[in-house]
């Protein structure tokens, strides 16, 4: 099916509007250490970026609408967002666009892998338990005497095992 010139113009207008809504980070984003006061602005900036790249690069098969529920996807998309900001800063070299596209191409497979369980709708596959208390205890015995207060069970360990 061929698209008309007006469809193409409409698509470009949508892309411009989405791109205008994007704010780029001025410093690296570390989701482990982000200040609560910054978190909302970062989420909004990332969401605008994600929507723009999904539309611009036809990534609906790689990035599902539930992307924000998948930590690994959030990290991958945050890295893409920061990388694009770096590549398109003033003074970037002529190869910046190709370098950005290469980075995006490498990310597509990793993004697709983030959503293997979410084809029709979101399926939560978040790991709630990794190592048991017994495993942690065996590790502590293996490494020798340590400050046991420094080695605490994961906050995600909800099973109590």
Can you characterise this structure?
- α3 runs antiparallel to α4 (96-114).
- By secondary structure, the protein is mainly alpha-helical.
- The N and C termini lie far apart (57 Å).
- It has helices spanning 5-20, 36-56, 71-87, 96-114, 133-143.
Class inferred from helices and paired strands: mainly alpha
Distance between the termini: 57 Å
Mean pLDDT: 80
Strand coverage percent: under 5%
Number of helices: 5
Number of domains: 2
Q: The biggest beta sheet, please?
A: none
Helix content: 40-55%
Pattern of helices and strands = HHHHH
| DSSP summary, beta strand count | 0
Give the low-pLDDT segments: none
Which quaternary structure do these chains form?
A: single chain
Cα radius of gyration in angstroms: 21 Å
Q: Based on Cα principal axes, name the global outline.
A: elongated
Architecture blueprint of SSEs:
Layout: H1 5-20, H2 36-56, H3 71-87, H4 96-114, H5 133-143
Provide a compact summary of the structure.
With 161 residues, the chain is mostly helical.
